[in-house]
Structure formats: structure tokens, C-alpha cells
Write a structure and sequence with these properties.
InterPro entries: P-loop_NTPase, Shikimate/glucono_kinase, Therm_gnt_kin. The chain has 174 residues and is an alpha/beta fold. It has helices at 20-31, 44-51, 58-77, 91-98, 113-122, 133-139, 158-169; strands at residues 9-13, 34-37, 82-85, 104-110, 150-153. The protein has a single domain, classed as Rossmann fold (3-Layer(aba) Sandwich). The structure holds adenosine-5'-triphosphate (ATP) and D-gluconic acid. Residues 16, 39, 56, 61, 87, 89, 128 line the site of D-gluconic acid (GCO).
Amino acid sequence: MADGENPCALVVMGVSGSGKSTIADHLAVRIGWRYEDGDTFHPPSNVSKMHSGQPLTDEDRWPWLRAIAAEIDRTCKANERAVIACSALKRSYRDILVHGRRDVRIVFLDGTQELIASRLIVRKGHFMPPGLLASQFKTLEPPTPDERPITVAIDRTVDLIVEDIVNQLKLDRP
Ligand SMILES: Nc1ncnc2c1ncn2[C@@H]1O[C@H](COP(=O)(O)OP(=O)(O)OP(=O)(O)O)[C@@H](O)[C@H]1O
Ligand SMILES: O=C(O)[C@H](O)[C@@H](O)[C@H](O)[C@H](O)CO
């Protein structure tokens, strides 16, 4: 790729409803990597808390982020490749996941609260209530250029978003 470092993990980040699971899953199929849903690393207490309409605190999130970071390290060490959907809303959260690795890249799903709310209203069967969206935006610290994020606008079809990511990634063998 452009900076001479081929990634072993892509962290697809953004607020609840920005499309992390959808995009990460399609992207993984497109590039032939494994897909991992970061929500499966939450302890049950975190899921119950969100389900009951309460936002998570930093203390709730640290163990969850450390578990995902360990999975990223394991994946890369095993010479595997994974696309991981994980909200990673704050810089300090992403620093735990990336911890200086050049082979872990951030993909930021960028969209307005209005658009995302309209998608969450019609989403069925998910533990995350749409009412938590405002707190997600309040917590969000969009990635800064030094994080080398791949930023994509989400007001398009899934296929167009995935192709945009693939083009920006410039993988040696997409
Ligand atoms: N580009 C898109 N165009 C239209 N609908 C989309 C698009 N991307 C995702 N969606 C829909 O928006 C909703 C939210 O997407 P998804 O569940 O993937 O988001 P998420 O970020 O993983 O959410 P959460 O963090 O709450 O799990 C879903 O119903 C999904 O089908
Ligand atoms: O940090 C957080 O607040 C959580 O990770 C949430 O973002 C959820 O996991 C997700 O968005 C719902 O599926």
C-alpha cells in the first residue's frame, strides 16, 4: 500500500447506527478477510446497560477495548487478517486498539445525526436503543489526520462505501 505497510486489521468505527456491522461485513467479504463484530467482546453487563438506555462510561469500556486489542494483536501475530466493527468513539479508545501499530488502520464512517437517526428508527432486533444516539455523538471524537484514518461518507449505498474504502486502502492484493 501507499505507505509501504500492509495492514492486518481494519477497525471500522463510528457511532451506533453509522453502519459499522454492515460495512465491515461487506468489506471483509470484498477483500477476503475475516469479519469480527466488536459488540461480541462486551461483557453482558455492558450490553444490559445499553439495552436499558444508559450510555457506557470509560470504566465500562476499558476492559472491552483491551479485549479487542488483544484479538487484533493475536490476529496479526498469527498472520491473519480481520475487519473489526468497533465504535471506538474517542481517541483514547483508539489508542488502546492501535497502540502505535502501523499495520492497524482506522476506517471512519462519517454521517450526520439526522441520517443515522432515520436508519436507527427502522432497524429491528438490536439491543441498542435509538435514544442513545445523542450521547454517542457527544462522546465522538472524529479521528485526526495523524491517525491516518480512511474516512468515508455514509450517505451512499453499501457497495459504493465499500469500494471507496478499498480504493483508499490501496492494498497490494485487494
Ligand atoms: N449505506 C447504507 N445505506 C442504507 N442503510 C444502511 C447503510 N448502512 C447501514 N444501513 C442500515 O442502517 C442500520 C444501522 O447499520 P448497522 O447496524 O450496520 O450500524 P452499526 O454502526 O453497526 O450499529 P451499532 O453500533 O448500533 O451496532 C441497519 O439497519 C443497516 O441495514
Ligand atoms: O462504546 C459504546 O458506546 C458501545 O460500543 C456502542 O457504540 C455499541 O457497542 C454499539 O454502537 C451498539 O452496537
